[in-house]
């Protein structure tokens, strides 16, 4: 009995300690009386582009538990492989290129068996090369896979092997949304003629991030001469790649190379930054360009972390959730569309509206949101739990606005076209609207509206029924008080 009492006392003390510790680490950061449209606070310049970082210490971003970064990669620019300790959701705002991911423990399923190296011997050992080639069939087409397998079986005795093999490479283009697990190394290459612009949100408050609430890129190659200037208390010294921390002798033994090559891996004398310019052709094994992503039936049960689909395009109006020719469209991406988001606990919304179109007042029921403007301008108002208007102003291309959970927001396009991407901190974010056919006011009895707002039953009827759209409407003036209109959204 005494032992049980001691155990209970210890558990209670531990609970109090943990509660106090958590409160100190994550104090109430969402008592916001003002929001601002944010611009990047730090710019990291590189040989073939730049990385722009928003201040994640800004109150509205700390409230949402996220950080935001924009990558601008020039033509023939290569963003060198890096990984984060957080889940990441990215959006291709402009341009086209290639993307590669290296998932720990997964096989190299992209293989080049068209060019052999006589006399070099198999780089894998007997049997392993055949097994890897079998996995490559699914990505390079059955005919090519069979041809490569037959070639290897026929030539293996002569000591011939692959030219290269690596994990999956994908073509990316404007409108693509890319989900990335923590710890997964990722690289990008711009094979187009215009800059490749990618914006990313990092979920610092995620259960998968076991460090602190700071964005921490871990570079596998290259360096950052300016250092991680956004982390308070850290000395501002150049940030090298992680291989730099080991002694060259250790690297030489690990990679079975000479010490001089090991020193090259550390990029000690390399000042090109994390986005370098590729000289000459960039020859990696890649699939053909896709003209349009086929509609796939997936349930998530048959997908593994190695083969899971990680990209989806949100710029096709034919796949929009809400579409009105005169107003615009809205598309959402959640874990039902892209099952990998179930593990990342993130989702996205893409919007494109014409001038004087309005997104009806709404709030996110179960997620924080970060809105990034990709094109045009809009007038936005945001209201907090106190009923105070915490933001009332214009947002324009390249600006960022964080909208905490439950804060109501309305958007009205003031340029010819307004386009934005919203990242949300829930795999299946839900919205509730204040006005419209599926709104909260539409669901209330007339008597409740009449008494609650001290208006007549006729005025309550107009409040409840005059707006018959669900999401998008015209903002040019008040609706007519005439008879009922046909719903078009």
TrEMBL record:
Q: Which GO terms describe its molecular function?
A: nutrient reservoir activity
List the InterPro entries: 11S_seedstore_CS (IPR022379), 11S_seedstore_pln (IPR006044), Cupin_1 (IPR006045), RmlC-like_jellyroll (IPR014710), RmlC_Cupin_sf (IPR011051), Seed_Storage-Functional (IPR050253)
Region annotated Disordered sits at: 114-164
Please verify whether the record's keywords include Transferase: no
Complex formation = Hexamer; each subunit is composed of an acidic and a basic chain derived from a single precursor and linked by a disulfide bond.
* UniProt similarity note: Belongs to the 11S seed storage protein (globulins) family.
Instruction: Please identify the protein, giving its name as recorded.
Output: 11S globulin
Task: Tell me the organism's taxonomic lineage.
Answer: Eukaryota, Viridiplantae, Streptophyta, Embryophyta, Tracheophyta
């Amino acid at each position: 009995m005494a032992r049980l009492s001691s155990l209970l006392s210890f558990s209670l003390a531990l609970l109090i300690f943990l509660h106090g510790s958590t409160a100190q680490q994550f104090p109430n950061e969402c008592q916001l009386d003002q929001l601002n449209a944010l611009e990047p606070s730090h710019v990291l310049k590189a040989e073939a582009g730049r990385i722009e970082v928003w201040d994640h210490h800004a109150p509205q971003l700390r409230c949402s538990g996220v950080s935001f970064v924009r990558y601008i990669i020039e033509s023939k620019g290569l963003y060198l492989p890096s990984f984060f300790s957080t889940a990441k959701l990215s959006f291709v705002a402009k341009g086209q290129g290639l993307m590669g991911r290296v998932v720990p423990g997964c096989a190299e399923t992209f293989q080049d068996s068209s060019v052999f190296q006589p006399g070099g011997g198999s780089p894998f050992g007997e049997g392993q090369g055949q097994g890897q080639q079998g996995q490559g069939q699914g990505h390079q087409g059955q005919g090519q896979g069979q041809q490569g397998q037959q070639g290897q079986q026929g030539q293996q005795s002569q000591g011939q092997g692959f030219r290269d093999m690596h994990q999956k490479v994908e073509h990316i283009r404007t409108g693509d949304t890319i989900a990335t697990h923590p710890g997964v190394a990722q690289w990008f290459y711009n094979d187009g003629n215009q800059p490749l612009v990618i914006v990313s949100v990092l979920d610092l408050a995620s259960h998968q991030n076991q460090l602190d609430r700071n964005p921490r890129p871990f570079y596998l190659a290259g360096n950052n001469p300016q250092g991680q200037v956004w982390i308070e208390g850290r000395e501002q010294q150049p940030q090298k790649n992680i291989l730099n921390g080991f002694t060259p002798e250790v690297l030489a033994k690990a990679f079975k190379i000479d010490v001089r090559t090991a020193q090259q891996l550390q990029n000690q004398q390399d000042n090109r930054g994390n986005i370098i310019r590729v000289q000459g052709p960039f020859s990696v094994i890649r699939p053909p360009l896709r003209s349009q992503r086929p509609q796939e039936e997936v349930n998530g049960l048959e997908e593994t972390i190695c083969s899971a689909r990680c990209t989806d395009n949100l710029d096709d109006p034919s796949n929009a959730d809400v579409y009105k020719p005169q107003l615009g469209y809205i598309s959402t991406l959640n874990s039902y569309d892209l099952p990998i988001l179930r593990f990342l606990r993130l989702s996205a919304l893409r919007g494109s509206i014409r001038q004087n179109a309005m997104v009806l007042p709404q709030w996110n029921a179960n997620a924080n949101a970060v809105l990034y403007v990709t094109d045009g301008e809009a007038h936005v108002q945001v209201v907090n739990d106190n009923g105070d208007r915490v933001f009332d102003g214009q947002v324009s291309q390249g600006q960022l606005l964080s909208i905490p959970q439950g804060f109501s927001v309305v958007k009205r396009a003031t340029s010819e076209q307004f386009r934005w991407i919203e990242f949300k901190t829930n795999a299946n974010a839900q919205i509730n609207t204040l006005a419209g056919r599926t709104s909260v006011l539409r669901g209330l009895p007339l008597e409740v509206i009449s008494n609650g707002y001290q208006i007549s039953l006729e005025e309550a009827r107009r409040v409840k029924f005059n707006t018959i759209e669900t999401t998008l409407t015209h903002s040019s003036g008040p609706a007519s008080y005439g008879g009922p209109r046909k719903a078009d959204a």
